[in-house]
């Protein structure tokens, strides 16, 4: 297992945002996390690399215990790629500098080695010609592709995507999803919070469906999630009927 999560719960004060969440992700598996706004989807994947602390439960990433206070969390995060909704690029750094700064500071790579990695992954996301530009000179879709390349430069063992297309204009969504589809085909282990049900249907191996209160209501193979509505819980059926326009 690349990711194991057992009975994870989280509170903000008295408000519970995750309730006894348990799931696992095998190496090379692509899992989509879906559900209505406020159901704890983003919080769930951020607990995996401890960007969100949790008060109860256990999480392992490739055998490393995230819940153990002795765990070196910066080291863990360096191996878990994270792509955010709003890109989180450094606006004052060029594209290449965005791709190399963490490699040099965290992985202790030489500048030449970091540059080679950066160029490799810029080409992978189709943006080699933009290497000397600054984020503000790029479209939203291009910035998100740079953010994916930046995560890949760290040679992650797993990639987490937190609604990577929700801040994009509709015409830019496809170019980001195409990069993600390529990663899935290459065997990258991925967990992705998204409302893009077409992507979920086409690329994911499994779908996790969460509801308000941070509970996992469904955790099943993609074909079963979309193809066997009668076996789904009423809340899931209601969500799918609305989002798929059925």
How helical, in percent, are the residues? 25-40%
Termini distance?
36 Å
Which structural class best describes the helix and strand composition? alpha/beta
Order of helices and strands: EEEHEEHEHHHEHEHEEHH
Number of strands: 10
Structural notes for this entry:
The two termini are 36 Å apart. This protein has a 6-stranded mixed sheet with strand order 6-7-8-3-9-10, with helices on both faces. Strands 2-1-4-5 form a 4-stranded antiparallel sheet, covered by helices on one side. The mean pLDDT is 94. The protein has 9 helices and 10 strands. 37% of the residues lie in helices and 24% in strands.
Could you give a quick summary of the protein structure above?
This protein is α/β, with parallel strands linked by helices. It is built from nine helices and ten strands.
């Amino acid at each position: 297992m690349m990711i194991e999560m057992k009975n994870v719960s989280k509170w903000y004060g008295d408000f519970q945002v995750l309730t006894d969440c348990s799931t696992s992700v095998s190496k090379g598996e692509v899992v989509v996390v879906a559900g209505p706004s406020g159901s704890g989807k983003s919080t769930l994947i951020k607990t995996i690399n401890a960007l969100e602390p949790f008060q109860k439960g256990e999480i392992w990433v490739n055998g490393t215990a995230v819940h153990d206070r002795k765990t070196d969390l910066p080291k863990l995060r360096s191996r878990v790629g994270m792509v955010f909704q709003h890109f989180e690029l450094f606006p004052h750094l060029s594209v290449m500098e965005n791709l190399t700064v963490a490699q040099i500071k965290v992985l202790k790579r030489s500048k030449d080695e970091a540059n080679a990695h950066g160029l490799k992954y810029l080409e992978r996301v189709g943006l080699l010609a933009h290497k000397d530009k600054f984020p503000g000179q790029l479209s939203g879709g291009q910035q998100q592709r740079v953010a994916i390349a930046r995560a890949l430069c760290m040679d992650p063992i797993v990639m987490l995507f937190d609604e990577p297309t929700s801040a994009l204009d509709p015409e830019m969504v496809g170019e980001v999803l195409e990069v993600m589809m390529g990663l899935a085909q290459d065997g990258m282990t991925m967990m992705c919070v998204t409302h893009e049900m077409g992507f979920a249907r086409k690329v994911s191996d499994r779908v996790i469906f969460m509801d308000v209160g941070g509970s996992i209501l469904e955790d099943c193979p993609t074909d079963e999630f979309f193809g066997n509505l009668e076996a789904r819980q009423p809340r899931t059926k209601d969500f799918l009927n609305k989002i798929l326009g059925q």
